[in-house]
Design brief:
By secondary structure, the chain is mostly helical. The chain has 7 helices and no strands. Helix 2 (41-72) packs antiparallel against helix 5 (151-176), helix 3 packs antiparallel against helix 4 and helix 5 runs antiparallel to helix 6.
Amino acid sequence: AIIPIIIVAGMTVVAVKLFKKLARKTAPEVSMDMQVEYPSAAAAERAFDMKLSDVMIDSMRLTDQVIKGLYMHSRSVLSNAQKASFRLEENVKKLRFSTFYMIRSSEDINGPHAAYYVKSLSYLVALTESVSVIASSAFEHLDNNHKPLIQYRKETLVTIGKRLDTLFGEMTDAIRENDYSQVIALREIILSLSDDIDRIMAKEADRIGENKEFSRRNTNLYFGMMFEVKRVLYALSGFAALFDKTHMQHEENDKTQLS
């Protein structure tokens, strides 16, 4: 009787994970406007966090699309990715301006609360700028009829993309479930991926030194994408630390008020 229960429990966990993944992949367009009345500073912060999550999901989908386009050497896929990056930048601009308007207009949002919004937006801008550079540089590479990436470089980008997906997924799940208890642990995973990218680039530099036949354009694109991924990781690490400090402090304050 125990074995069927274990099997059902395992299937349930898998189903939940699959549902979350599909939800992130098919997230609908949402408004980035923060210029609405919220019942409290906490409600405003929660709404803001959900919008951060939406932008992260869009960034994850865009990065996946770029890597797919490079793997297929598809101009149409990368053209659509570049258009999506323009929409992403516009959404972040709307969120930034409307958030600053909300801070200026609200008497409840000041001090640490205001600082949280400003720091979050700085990480968000860094994140989306890097994702946009990844999209535009990939499209320009194909649009100028340069050669496809070498196969092992394509496969390396696919592997890195999957690990990025995991990080984006864990971060957005924490936001959407309003559970930040494990978010600081993501910094170790982020650091591990960043270190692996450093090793990949060092190994690639050695290969280039040994083989002068590597395409310069091909190599510039590959290294450029690696640099931008590291900037994305910097932003995600900043979010992890900020979320841990801010939201875990909220929980401590709530416990103090209840006791």
